[in-house]
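Translate structure to sequence.
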């Protein structure tokens, strides 16, 4: 057996950005924008902020055009977040973990009028550290995260959970936001079909070093077999015996309290058909709702917070409301160049049972099909959003203002057509994937 391949690291440190919202139109050059681009086309992360309209005084009309919003702007309808306020106990976590930084900290400061600020590195497993106590609120800038992960082995039995975590800061003369991405991998066990076909388990997990090794069988020119090893390091690797509860504790639980304080977090699962995306994602929103309601009823009691649920899918380039009889939704751009999902129903919820019913109803309505790798394959991108809103000054006559949001995105399989059978053209061409970058990128857009 020959060893080969290399070690690649996918970690939060590489995926942290401080990006000025007023960066120029040339910001797609990642080096200039503080973005990260890995070699060999393996991972490619870009962040594109868009300056809010009122801050664009100096832009020419041409430049303004280039600041147009993303294709999938899931949050466009709530870009005006509620003004900042202090939630008691919000930063306890940061203090507990010895967080000493902040905007006064030279290592974390943003120099006014500089195009790119210094990157901040936050220790792993403590999302709250990302938010200095004295950070002020800002209009939300637009952000895109683009991740390409080229699976070199078609039988790669893993899925990737990527948790992106955002927060805006408003600084004198300078608007910026931090993005924390956390990439985790969960391996699923061999299924009955694979066992009966005596397929080999090609992945070894090393939990202590957060790494996994893929053993790829290859052929030499003389047709003798050899195995090439590829080692990857992530923020966390979850072995096949890890339960869904543990996945929740590792990925989502740490960010739940942050959405009470002007934060948007998104957790999405990326992987090919049958890799376990839906199995992994399905329990997460309900567990998160339980924690959110617990916080609303205890820690943040009587502070006017409300929880709203919405659930829709993108299938064949069209949007459907999964909580409203699959009614067709439209994505439109308004006068402020914000993309809105017109007609999406949001339900106010205050107990776990109602949320459970809504999630089950939406999941049952989702488009499914059969692929060679999964008999019950989700053929769409499903987006479930838990939005926290709050009445301003307890005023009941005005609609509640968004405070934060937790989104769960169960993507359609990322497989190439050649990797599975029984795949028709429509299911192979998820809206987001085909529109933006070739050949199999995953594009997530937020604002
Ligand atoms: N960690 C796991 N432990 C046990 N069974 C799993 C695990 N992950 C996935 N499975 C099983 O594998 C099958 C496929 O999983 P799932 O439907 O979640 O895949 P998927 O990635 O969502 O596929 P698709 O993209 O086709 O929808 C299911 O029967 C599921 O129960």
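Result:
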């Amino acid at each position: 057996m020959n060893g080969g391949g290399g070690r690649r690291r996918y970690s939060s440190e590489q995926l942290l950005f401080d990006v000025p919202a007023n960066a120029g139109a040339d910001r797609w050059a990642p080096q200039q924008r503080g973005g990260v681009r890995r070699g060999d086309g393996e991972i490619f992360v870009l962040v594109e902020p868009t300056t809010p309209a009122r801050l664009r005084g100096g832009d020419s009309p041409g430049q303004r055009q280039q600041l147009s919003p993303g294709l999938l702007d899931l949050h466009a309808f709530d870009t005006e977040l509620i003004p900042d306020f202090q939630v008691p106990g919000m930063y306890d976590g940061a203090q507990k973990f010895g967080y000493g930084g902040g905007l006064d900290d030279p290592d974390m400061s943003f120099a006014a009028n500089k195009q790119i600020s210094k990157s901040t590195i936050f220790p792993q497993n403590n999302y709250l550290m990302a938010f200095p106590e004295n950070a002020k609120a800002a209009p939300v800038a637009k952000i895109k995260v683009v991740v390409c992960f080229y699976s070199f082995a078609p039988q790669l039995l893993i899925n990737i959970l990527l948790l992106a975590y955002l927060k805006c800061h408003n600084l004198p003369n300078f608007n910026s936001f931090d993005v924390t991405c956390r990439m985790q991998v969960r391996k699923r066990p061999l299924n009955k079909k694979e066992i009966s076909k005596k397929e080999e388990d090609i992945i070894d997990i090393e939990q202590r070093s957060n790494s996994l090794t893929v053993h790829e069988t290859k052929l030499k020119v003389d047709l003798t077999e050899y195995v090439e090893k590829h080692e990857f390091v992530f923020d966390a690797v979850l072995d096949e015996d890890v339960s869904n509860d543990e996945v929740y504790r590792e990925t989502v639980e740490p960010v739940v309290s942050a959405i009470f304080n002007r934060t948007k977090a998104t957790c999405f699962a990326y992987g090919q058909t049958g890799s376990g995306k839906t199995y992994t994602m399905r329990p997460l929103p309900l567990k998160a709702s339980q924690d959110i309601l617990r916080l609303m009823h205890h820690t943040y009691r009587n502070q006017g917070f409300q929880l709203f649920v919405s659930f829709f899918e993108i299938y064949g380039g069209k949007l459907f409301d999964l909580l409203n009889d699959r009614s067709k939704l439209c994505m439109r751009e308004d006068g402020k160049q914000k993309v809105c999902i017109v007609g999406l129903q949001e339900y106010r919820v205050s107990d776990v049972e109602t949320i459970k019913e809504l999630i089950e109803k939406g999941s049952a309505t989702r488009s499914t099909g059969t692929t060679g790798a999964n008999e019950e394959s989700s053929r769409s991108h499903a987006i479930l959003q838990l939005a926290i809103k709050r009445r301003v000054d307890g005023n009941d006559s005005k609609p509640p203002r968004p405070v934060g949001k937790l989104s769960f995105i169960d993507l359609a399989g990322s497989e190439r057509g050649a990797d599975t059978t029984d795949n028709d053209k429509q299911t192979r061409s998820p809206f987001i994937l085909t529109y933006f970058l070739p050949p199999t990128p995953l594009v997530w857009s937020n604002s």
